[in-house]
Specification:
About 35% of the residues lie in helices and about 20% in strands. It is α+β, with helices and mostly antiparallel strands. The chain has one domain: Peroxisomal Thiolase, Chain A, domain 1, CATH 3.40.47. The mean pLDDT is about 90.
């Protein structure tokens, strides 16, 4: 399956946007994991913005960048949201509340506990009736999300927005799900049949291998290993370099997803 990458979003420590983070991915400037301000985007009314968790904000910030750089109308674009475990901070608060007298579950936490909460905020904010899928596949979530988005694009022959995101794990859950830093990325994928000056990616069937692509920079490799959504970093670096390259991203079990990148020009 093939698609043009019409827009890219990136939101992580030291990589606050695709425009500013691209130089670090290309090793043209040193990467420093600077603190990340995770603000609620203004696509929703103030009351809804106050309810947004960090995970939701990370997802939406990434999505906004990708759509803005594509020039396409957000309300008409189907979406795929991928997260390894969902909103673990909300899960932690709900489980803690259930251990207390009276089980004082917060209505806001309950509202945000569904896996498609980020997609809901996005489509409400964009007044979009386009279809949406939210999925989880652990460390394989980026690859699974990419397969889902490309499948949707191939069937519908329309642009599809892929958003992959994960927020740091609360301390009590960290041993089970060690996510160390926030990370979000988004790809606005367009049909390969469209004539446009944009990189082209082609996904091949998964293969069994000993390991997949990694990052040469130690701090970027630590980020890649410390957040399932950041498993996308080798793909993002290949897109930043705008060269003919191939990368492999972790998929299910011992399989990896090969992706070929063709430059835009």
């Amino acid at each position: 399956m093939k698609a043009h990458v019409a827009g890219i979003g990136l939101f992580a420590p030291g990589l606050e946007s695709w425009a500013t983070g691209r130089a670090s991915l290309m090793h043209r400037q040193d990467y420093v994991a600077a603190p990340l301000t995770i603000a609620a985007p203004a696509i929703c009314p103030p009351n809804e913005r106050r309810r947004m968790t960090s995970a939701i904000r990370i997802a939406l910030q990434s999505a906004l960048q990708a759509v803005a750089s594509s020039g396409l109308e957000a309300s008409a674009i189907p979406t795929v949201f991928a997260s390894s475990e969902g909103d673990l901070d909300v899960i932690h608060h709900l489980c803690t509340a259930l251990t207390l007298p009276g089980h004082p579950v917060s209505p806001t936490h309950f509202h945000n506990s569904v896996h498609n909460a980020p997609a809901g905020y996005w489509h409400l904010g964009q007044q979009s009736h386009a279809c949406s899928t939210s999925l989880s596949a652990g460390d394989a979530s980026v690859a699974a999300g990419l397969i889902e988005a490309l499948t949707m694009l191939t069937i519908e022959q329309c642009p599809v927005l892929l958003v992959a995101y994960d927020a740091p794990t609360p301390a009590r859950l960290h041993a089970r799900c060690p996510i160390d830093a926030p990370f979000g990325m988004a790809l606005l994928l367009a049909p390969a049949t469209n004539a446009m000056e944009a990189p082209l990616i082609a996904v091949r069937p998964p293969v069994v291998a000993a390991s997949g692509s990694s990052m040469a920079h130690p701090a970027l490799e630590a980020l890649r290993q410390g957040n399932p959504a950041a498993r996308s970093l080798p793909l993002l670096r290949a897109l930043a370099l705008d060269q003919r390259l191939s990368v492999t991203l972790p998929y299910l079990d011992d399989a990896f997803l090969p992706i070929d990148i063709e430059p835009c020009c």
